[in-house]
Amino acid sequence: MSTAHTILLVQPDKKAEGRTYSDYQSINDCMEGVCRIYEEHLKKSNPTSNQITYDIAQLFDFIDDINDIACFVYKSDGSSYKPYNREWIKEKIYTLLKKQASGN
């Protein structure tokens, strides 16, 4: 995946004051960041559990439950950022996790 600077925008619920953004040096780093957000959510939901496990369907359900999530990726021509929606994020996460599972 590209090493383009990527900004992740997240609004977990309807409250505007809950909006956050994070920036990453690559699309991969951003997708790993989305996974970490879910893992932190699981840790908070299961504070007595020593280990967390999940499958991709659970991760995608979590992403679908977020009120608004989007990425802005810096275009290679250096002129602007291009917006991407939650479906694009899920596709990139799927590709990343598939690649990690195959050991590449």
UniProtKB/TrEMBL annotation:
Keyword set, alphabetical order: Cell cycle
The family this protein is said to belong to: Belongs to the E(R) family.
SUPFAM superfamilies to which the protein is assigned, alphabetical: ERH-like (SSF143875)
Reported function: May have a role in the cell cycle.
Species annotation: Oikopleura dioica
Name of the protein described by the UniProt record: Enhancer of rudimentary homolog
Superkingdom, taxonomy of origin: Eukaryota
InterPro entries: EHR_sf (IPR035912), ERH (IPR000781)
Coiled coil (residue ranges): none
